[in-house]
UniProtKB/TrEMBL annotation:
<keyword id="KW-0378">Hydrolase</keyword>
<comment type="similarity">
    <text>Belongs to the DPH7 family.</text>
</comment>
<protein>
    <recommendedName>
        <fullName>methylated diphthine methylhydrolase</fullName>
        <ecNumber>3.1.1.97</ecNumber>
    </recommendedName>
</protein>
<dbReference type="InterPro" id="IPR019775">
    <property type="entry name" value="WD40_repeat_CS"/>
</dbReference>
<dbReference type="GO" id="GO:0005737">
    <property type="term" value="C:cytoplasm"/>
</dbReference>
<feature type="repeat" description="WD">
    <location>
        <begin position="210"/>
        <end position="252"/>
    </location>
</feature>
<dbReference type="InterPro" id="IPR001680">
    <property type="entry name" value="WD40_rpt"/>
</dbReference>
<keyword id="KW-0853">WD repeat</keyword>
<keyword id="KW-0677">Repeat</keyword>
<dbReference type="InterPro" id="IPR052415">
    <property type="entry name" value="Diphthine_MTase"/>
</dbReference>
<dbReference type="GO" id="GO:0061685">
    <property type="term" value="F:diphthine methylesterase activity"/>
</dbReference>
<dbReference type="GO" id="GO:0017183">
    <property type="term" value="P:protein histidyl modification to diphthamide"/>
</dbReference>
<dbReference type="InterPro" id="IPR036322">
    <property type="entry name" value="WD40_repeat_dom_sf"/>
</dbReference>
<comment type="pathway">
    <text>Protein modification; peptidyl-diphthamide biosynthesis.</text>
</comment>
<dbReference type="Pfam" id="PF00400">
    <property type="entry name" value="WD40"/>
</dbReference>
<dbReference type="InterPro" id="IPR015943">
    <property type="entry name" value="WD40/YVTN_repeat-like_dom_sf"/>
</dbReference>
Length: 337
């Protein structure tokens, strides 16, 4: 196993919890980093959470090209299909909203839309995922919320609207994600330890409910390069690998070096490589062999706080950006070949 070292870093001021590289070839050098700060201010008896989203060009010294102020950021994802001819970043915020920002002609992000999922300002939008990773014609977004709700947002004329909404979990729904190979299917995980599948053609109807993880389910991602492969992660520090054709039991598990897991990201082109932001333990890269058995190949241990965000570059196959919370820092590093 290789231990990676930081190539460059940036102090984000506010706590950093999300890193997302732009997937488009002409903007693949751009990295968005989201932050979260709980303030002492109060509105309607709810403490105000502030956020900033930084835009970096990672081919240059790490000075932000742009800083966008929003409510606190919980999650971000780029759409893999153009929205009204724009490359769009979706941001999930701390007051139950989703913001869409698109590149303009000056390579700056400008606000396009905002969708409010709830009127209750105490409800956080905890995650979002786009259906368009493989199916470019499906531009829907799934979001999960701190009250356990799951929303499907869909484009309607010039804006996004709530297409469907249902109560998925009784505790915080930390994560929701599309099956990229069959976008009728959505997965969700929550603090109740439950991992659920949903068919969006009949909203609110589960296709399965499992409690395999020993603690809250925090992350999952469909493998964009390998059909039927899904990875899930949890506070229990274990990654489960699933064959979506037979969900009765995982095909493999991997016990990470600890810390709990917050984000899992499959490599953009290598179907056997998985990145984990493992909170208290750092960030890790796993490689699967022909039998889908995972092995730890790279660890990054420079974070001195909880590593919440991590993502792969779409331009440089080994480049990773990861960020951590209380030390409010983003690092760039390379996974081993």
């Amino acid at each position: 196993m290789t231990q990676a070292v930081s190539i460059d870093s940036f102090d984000t001021g506010y706590s950093a919890d999300s890193t997302e590289f732009c997937p488009y070839q002409d903007h693949a050098q751009y990295l968005a980093v989201g932050t979260y700060q709980l303030t002492d201010e109060q509105q309607e008896n709810v403490r105000v959470r502030k956020g900033k989203t930084y835009l970096f060009d990672v081919t240059q010294p790490l000075v932000p090209k742009q800083v966008i102020e929003t409510p606190a950021v919980l999650d971000m994802k780029w759409s893999h299909s153009l929205i009204n001819d724009k490359q769009v970043l979706g941001i999930a915020d701390s007051i139950g909203g989703v913001h869409l920002y698109g590149f303009n002609n000056q390579d700056r992000l400008e606000k396009l839309h905002h969708v409010q999922a709830t009127d209750d300002a105490s409800v956080l939008c905890l995650s979002l995922d786009w259906a368009s990773r493989l199916n470019k014609t499906d531009q829907r977004i799934v979001t999960s919320h701190s009250n356990g709700d799951i929303n499907i947002l869909a484009p309607a004329e010039s804006e996004y609207v709530i297409q469907d909404q249902w109560h998925g979990h009784d505790l915080e729904a930390w994560i929701a994600a599309f099956d990229y190979w069959n976008t009728n299917i959505v997965y969700s995980g929550a603090d109740d330890g439950l991992f659920k599948g949903w068919d969006t053609r009949t909203p609110g109807t589960t296709t399965f409910v499992y409690k395999r993880h020993m603690m809250g389910v925090t992350t999952m991602q469909s493998n964009p390069n390998k059909e039927y492969m899904l990875a899930t992660g949890s506070y229990d520090e274990t990654i489960y690998f699933w064959d979506t054709r037979s969900m009765r039991a995982p095909i493999n598990t991997f016990q990470t070096p600890g810390g709990g897991i917050w984000r899992l990201k499959w490599h953009p082109t290598n179907q056997n490589r998985l990145l984990s932001a493992s909170m208290h333990a750092g960030a890790f890269v796993l490689d699967l062999n022909q039998e889908n058995e995972p092995k730890l190949s790279t660890s990054f241990l420079d974070h001195t706080s909880m590593a919440y965000g991590a993502d792969w570059s779409f331009a440089d196959k080994d480049l990773v950006a990861s960020c951590s919370f209380y030390d409010h820092i983003m690092h760039l590093w390379k996974a081993s070949d």
